[in-house]
Sequence to fold (110 residues):
Amino acid sequence: AFLYGLASDYDNSIYFFYGARLAELLIYRPLVDSTTERCPNLHPYYFIEAGANSGSLTGQINLYDVWKIVPNPQKVTYYLSGPPIMIKTLSAGLAEKALLEEQILMDAWE
Fold:
């Protein structure tokens, strides 16, 4: 829903990290890519755990890579959505980086 409603003139930069075990499981990639075409402030980064895929990073979403990509990573808000183990791992890592609690928003899947 967020991507569908994202205005082409949205002022803030959005760094969108999307991961899956296999490239073919990135089922929302066409939506993300088409949204990027109309909204230049959306910057997607794809992670796949197995196999090689052009335009994707290898492995799970991790804070090491996020920290290298996002400008001023301690000054942004993180919205985490995914399976509980991913949320737990990433939110713990963000907390270790001394982010404020209100900078970490979560939507854990069941």
Notes: The chain has four helices and five strands. The mean pLDDT is 90. Helices lie at 2-5, 29-38, 63-69, 84-96. The two ends are 19 Å apart (CA to CA).
